[in-house]
Specification:
The protein is mainly α. The chain has helices at about 10-30, 35-45, 50, 55-65, 65-90, 95-125, 125-160, 165-190, 205-215, 225-230, 235-250, 260-290, 290-305, 310-315, 320-350, 355-395, 400-405. Helix 2 runs antiparallel to helix 16, helix 12 crosses helix 15 and helix 13 packs antiparallel against helix 15.
Length: about 425
């Protein structure tokens, strides 16, 4: 138990950091470097692809090398690709090159997820797994706080200090590069070497099992409705997520709030993240009382209706950072509360034979549900302007309310 404390916190901090950098920090950096909203939303949405195909890639990870080897190696490569971002920021073709490195980071990160979660299962006894489940989640959240909060705030301070946006972001990515090289070296020394951490023996049997797992998933009750639910539950939110930070950073003359990079880091990385976590905790607590079926529509309302705060922000364009932070906190609290239903339903769908693999497939579909709407969200915003775009986001939540009516769900699921 004591030895596990030496690697679980760092492993899950290392798991969360590249995800938040690829999905959130990259958007803020590109906005500060003058990339259009349409290009930011379209191209950064493609970065979800490694997580979409993660269930297809996972058998290869099992087949080749040990999970410990994958962890150490992917952390080193994440560091190398972060260095690639830092080195290419000053160039004229920085957008193309940094996007390439971000995609490589995303692919390495998704591979790291597979190996880290698998290693957790084989390196710990069942009792230890239960004990550390909250610890690993907490340090993953710390990575979010450090990434979209502290890193972005520091980037804003560097922008002001040097009066050079590109240099500021080079320094940020240089820091994270060093961090991941250190993670790789540390975990190479400190991770245990479980006797059962071995590559899978037969590729033929593994691929046969893999195919059977997919077939079994798509034979589930009302699977078309289930997939539609997973794809559309966050249809509005997926579009909002790509444009929220650019909206905060854009000048008032184009409909934005004209906030600084530091302000955005504070709002989303501290106030917003704390509200998100509190919403998630409350969601889990109430779902365990009366079950998911009782709460699912309330949670659907919670994740979608607070998106309306952006309509208010776009029309009023308030000056007060306190007012903006409070409204974002309300939206993020609702997101955390409502996301509980989404995660619980994916667990519900995955119940039965091969539930771990089926849950991985469900999360791949979930990533697709963020990727596809995000791709066209920037073009929608540029065509409509911020005011009408945020109205559209609220309209885009309607399909989720309709589909939820038809999903299969046991009334007792989720209760203690």
């Amino acid at each position: 138990m004591k030895k596990a404390w030496s690697w679980i916190p760092t492993l899950y901090f290392a798991e969360g950091t590249p995800y938040i950098i690829v999905m959130t920090v990259s958007v803020i950096m590109y906005k500060r470097l003058g990339i259009s909203n349409a290009d930011i939303a379209f191209f950064t949405s493609w970065l979800y692809l490694p997580w979409v195909i993660k269930p297809l890639w996972s058998p290869v990870v099992d087949l080749l090398k040990t999970k410990r080897w994958w962890i150490v190696t992917t952390q080193f490569f994440i560091g190398a690709f972060l260095a690639g971002v830092a080195l290419t920021i000053p160039g004229n073709s920085f957008f193309q090159y940094t996007m390439l490195f971000f995609w490589l980071i995303a692919f390495s990160s998704a591979t790291h997820d597979i190996s880290a979660d698998g290693f957790y299962m084989i390196a710990l006894k069942e009792k230890e797994q239960s004990f550390f489940i909250g610890i690993r989640s907490t340090f993953y959240r710390f990575a979010m706080l450090a990434g979209q909060g502290l890193l972005v705030i520091f980037a804003g301070q560097l922008e002001e200090h040097f009066d050079n946006i590109r240099l500021a972001w080079q320094i940020i990515f240089g820091i994270v590069t060093v961090l991941f090289v250190l993670f790789s070296l540390y975990h190479k020394l400190i991770l245990p070497k479980p006797a059962n951490d071995k590559p899978a023996g037969s590729s033929e049997n593994l691929l046969k099992e893999f195919a059977a797992t997919f077939i079994l998933f798509f034979k589930k009750e009302k699977i078309v409705v289930v997939i539609a639910f997973i794809l559309f539950y966050r249809f509005g939110e997926a579009q909002l997520a790509k444009l929220a930070a650019p909206f905060m950073l854009d000048g008032k003359e184009v409909g934005g709030l004209a906030l600084s990079t530091t302000d955005v880091g504070f709002i989303y990385g501290t106030v917003g993240l704390i509200a998100l976590m509190l919403g998630g905790i409350l969601g889990g607590a109430v779902a365990s009382k009366k079950g998911l079926k009782y709460w699912i529509y309330w949670m659907l309302i919670a994740i979608n209706i607070p998106d309306a705060v952006y309509i208010y922000l776009s029309y009023v364009q308030p000056e007060s950072l306190t007012v903006i932070s409070a409204l974002v906190a309300l939206e993020q609290f609702g997101y955390g509360f409502g996301f509980t239903a989404f995660m619980l339903y994916m667990i519900y769908v995955s119940e039965g034979e091969r539930k771990t693999a089926h849950y991985a497939i469900a999360t791949g579909i979930m990533a697709l549900g963020m990727m596809l709407p995000g791709m066209f969200s920037g073009m929608m915003q540029e065509a409509l302007g911020y005011k009408l775009f945020f109205v559209w986001v609220l309209i885009a939540t309607i399909p989720s309310f309709i589909i939820t009516k038809f999903i299969p769900l046991d009334p007792e699921f989720g209760k203690k």
